[in-house]
Amino acid sequence: MVYIINDIILIFISIIMVTSKPCDILENMSCECHSSLNNQTDQLTCTNHHTPLNGSIQLTNYTLNNPRTFDSFHFTFHARDFNISAMFINQISYLFPRSYSSSNHGRRQMTIKIILTFQDYLQLHFEDYSFYQLFGEKSDFTTSLSLELTSSGHITFSPMAFSQLIVDQMSLHSSSLEPYSFEEIFNNTNIGSLAVEGCTPRVNNTLRNYFNGKIRSGKFTKMVEIVSSEEFPNYPVNSMSIEAHEPRKMNASTFISYHNLHGVHLVRPKFFFDNRSFDGFQYLPNLETIELDAETIKDNTFKHAARTRFFTLGQNIRYLSEHSFDHLDYLTRFDLSKVILDQLYPSAKCILARYLQKQQKSNPSMIILPPQAEFCDCVYDFILNLIKKKPEQSYVELCDNTQQERCQLNECDVVKSFRFPSKEQKTNQEIIPSIDESIHDNPIPFYSNPERSPSYIPRHPPVYPNSNNHIESSDSSFAETQVIIIQPSQSLLSSSPPPRIPSAVRKRTRKGKKKNRKHFPQNNPLYSYHGPHW
Is 491 helix (H, G, I), strand (E, B) or coil? Predict the structure, then answer.
C-alpha cells in the first residue's frame, strides 16, 4: 500500500510539473506550449482551421527574434483542400534541440517526435520532396514522424513525395493509398522502423527493380476477411510483420516465399486453429514471433510453426486441448500477460499449468510473463510459484489465507499435488517485482520488535512443534499461562464458555507448595489459553 501511495504521489507531481499556455510560434496556426518544470520535455501543439498556409509552415517574427526549442510537435489541419509543398515543415527544424546534453538527460536517448494529423480533407496532395531531409542526414536524437490521414478524402502523391526522408521511426495511418504502390511512395527513403495501419499498399514488381528505399523493418496492420498474400503483399523491407484483425480464414501456404516474414499477429480471429492452420510456415526460416488472440487452439496447432521463439497468447483465449502447445520447442519468451485466467475453462487452465511446469523442467531459461487473475485462483498461485513471482499486495491480502484449503481441493492434478511454500518460506524467499514491474513488495518480518504486537491476528492459536512429550514441573507459585486439552473439533472462537480445567492444572494456580504435574497423553494437540485464572 505504501508503494501504491508513493506511485500516486509521483504521478500527481509529474502532472502538476507540466505547464501549458498559448504561444505565438507559427503563422496562421493557434498554438500551445507545454513545458515541464524540470526541462525534460517541451511540446508544441498547433491547429490550423481552414486558413491557407501559403505552401508551408512559417515561423512568426516573434519566434525568429526569441528562439526556443521543443522535442515534440503535434500539428492538426482541418482544411478541405490541402497541398503539402516541398519541405513543408522543414522550418520547424529551427525549433529542434541544438545539442544533446548528457548532463541534463543522463544516458537516456532523447527523441524528436512529429505528428501531423489531417482531418476533414476532401483532397490531399503531397508534392515532391515534401519531407526532404527533415531531420538532416544524421541526428544525435531518435527521430519519429507520424502521418494520420483520418479523412476518407482522396490522396495523391507526386513521384518523389517522400524522397530523401531519413527517420528512425515512421507511422502512416490511412484507409487507402490507392492507386499508388509501396515502391512509388517509399522510394529513396531511409527508414528504420515503418508502421502502416488501416490499409496495405499494393506492390509493383516492375518498379521494385529500381527501388532504392532502405527500410529495416515494416509492420502492416488492417482488418481482413482472409489472411493471405493478396491482403499482405511481400514488401521490400528487411524484416516484415503482419497484423490481421478479425479474419475469418487463413491461407498460410500463400506466404511460402516470404523469407523476410518475421512476425504474425492475429487479433480476434473468427475461426479455430488446428494442425492445418499454419501449414506453409514451415518454409519460413525467419518467422520467430506469433501473437494469437484466438478463442480455440486445438491439438498440434503449431506443428508447422515449430521455429517460433516469441509467443503471445491473447485475451480472447477460452479453449485449449491437451496438445495445443506441442511443437513449440524453441520458445525463449511465452507472454501470458494479456490472458485473464477467470475467462478460461477449468480444463484449459489445467492444460496451461501442466505445459508451464513441463517447460520449466525442460527449458528453465524461457521467460514467462504470467497471466492475470480477477479472483482467487489456484492455477494463478501455481504459475506464480512456478516462476518465482509474487502477486500484487491486494491479491495477497484477499487470497493468501485460504490458499492451502482452496488448492488442496482443486480439480487440476498438478495444482492439487503441488506443495505451496509456507508463510515462513514466502517471507524468507527472494522478492520478485509484481507483474507491472513498477511496484516492489518488501517483506515485513513478524515480531521484528519484541515490544510490538504482530500486525495480524491468527485464526487459531499457535501450536509449537518443539513441545516435549510431558509437561515439566515448576516451583513458581503462580502461572500466567494455563495448559488445557480440548478436542480438535472445538473452536476457541466460539461463543460457548471455556472448557472445564482439569483439577491437576487448577491446583497449580493456588499458592503454596506445588504438586508434580500430571502427565497428559499427547494424542490431542496442546493449545495456549488466555482465560481467567483460578
Answer: coil
What's the pLDDT band for 463 if we cut at 50, 70, 90?
A: very low
- Strands 30-36, 18-23: pairing kind: antiparallel
Nearby residues of 456 by Cβ (< 8 Å), 6 or more positions away:
none
| Radius of gyration of the CA atoms of the chain, in A | 34
Contact 110, 142 (CB under 8 A): yes
**Ordered alpha helix ranges (H), 325-367:** 346-362
Distance from the Cα of residue 313 to its chain's centroid: 12
pLDDT digits (tens, 9 = 90+) for 390-442: 888 888 888 888 888 888 888 899 988 887 776 655 554 444 443 444 333 43
What are the tens digits of pLDDT across the range 5-44?
A: 445 444 444 444 567 889 989 988 999 999 876 656 789 9
Lookup: cell for 462: 499457535
Q: Are 129 and 87 in contact (CB under 8 A)?
A: yes
Q: Residue 397 carries which side chain, given as an amino acid letter?
A: E
Coil, strand or helix at 358: helix
Closest C-alpha to 85, from 48, 57, 119, 113: 57
Q: What percent of the chain has pLDDT over 90?
A: 51
Give the model confidence (pLDDT) of 338-363 as tens digits.
999 999 999 999 999 999 999 999 99
- 264, 229 contact by CB (below 8 A): no
Neighbours of 168 (CB within 10 A): 19
Angle at 329 between CA 323 and CA 356, to 5 degrees: 60
pLDDT at 291: 97
Q: What's the CA gap between 436 and 438, in Å, rounded?
A: 5
267, 287 Cβ separation under 8 angstroms: no
Q: Are 296 and 272 in contact (CB under 8 A)?
A: yes
